[in-house]
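**User:**
Everyone, produce one record:

**Assistant:**
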Amino acid sequence: CETARLAQETAQALQTTTLLFEASLNVRQADSIETTIAALRDELVKLAPDRIDVLLVRMRESEQRIDWVLAWRADDPNSQAVQVDKPLMQGDWDMLDMPPYFIQDVQDADPNLIDRIQPLLYLGAFRAQAAVPMQVKGQVNGRVIITYDQPHHFTRTEQQLLTTLADQAAISLDNFVLVQQTQASLEETAILYQTSRAIANATDPRQELDAIIDYAAPPFVNSALTLRLIGNSWDDRNAAVEVVTFWQHNENGYDLSGARFTAEQFPIWDVIKRTDYTWIVDVDAPHAYMDEFVLDIEAYKLMFGARGLVVFPLFGANRTPLGALLI
């Protein structure tokens, strides 16, 4: 009897181990962020939930945000897609750091736990739910949530499977992000090297500007110019700027080379006199910059025919202002 019981437990343990290994392997063999989430979804579907949600911490424009990368619904065939750029409208960072929980019936659940997971109710009401953090090296980078419309008993194997899948997905995603960051860093280094070398070999200001356009500027740039400050300071009463070099994508436009402008004539004077670089994504969204400087939007668009703007200040010895580079 004892031998039979041990044999049965051993067989069950081997079966569970095989299940966990195969499920983890399917996630580990994915070759991108999208396919990793898709493989995770396909394994979780085997638990027959009514909903599967995956929240992922992503870096966007130097800021972290919570993206709702998967919103699978059993009754909606169109919910299979992985959407890596869909932000969670009501993101709550505290819910990501919560320990795993397995609610078999919300009517019998701890009220304190229900209060803590209130932000997740944004994903939809439920009767049973399990949520496991995705973490690697002690850092939480997401959460896997499976939901049932009826009470559901989460077996030990199901809990192990969900935890194993979340851990493996977290490791795979962390590796992909590391590779992307490394590739981006290498690309930036190559761009800086090529641009610096081209500028060093330039024989006049126009060739210097061409080097920046050819190697460093994105392809959708409309125009670029270098300005020379006339005067000792941007705030001098008689200060002006001269367009030393001018480049434009549309060669049929007017050439500003050699033109001079006073502070009253140049629509972005408050921008070019700043001591740090300025990046305006859209001049038609003044709420993003109106607290820092004044910009004549209509005059700017009339002069340059563009809505975005990047300005780099140019300095000489002892940070003496020399002018600015506009792209």
